Amino acid sequence: MNDGDAAPSERALRLRDSRALLLAEVLLVAGLFLADAWHHVFFSKTPYLLLLGWVSLRLRGMRWRDVGFSAGPQWKTFALAGVLAGIVIEGLELFVTQPLLARATGQLPDLSDFTDLVGNLQLLMEVIAGAWILAALGEELVWRGWLLNRCADLFGRNRAGWIAALVVSSVAFGLAHAYQGSIGVTENIIDGALLAGVYFACGRNLLAPMVAHGITDTVDALIIFSGHYPGLTK
Question: pTM of the prediction?
Answer without folding.
Answer: 0.90
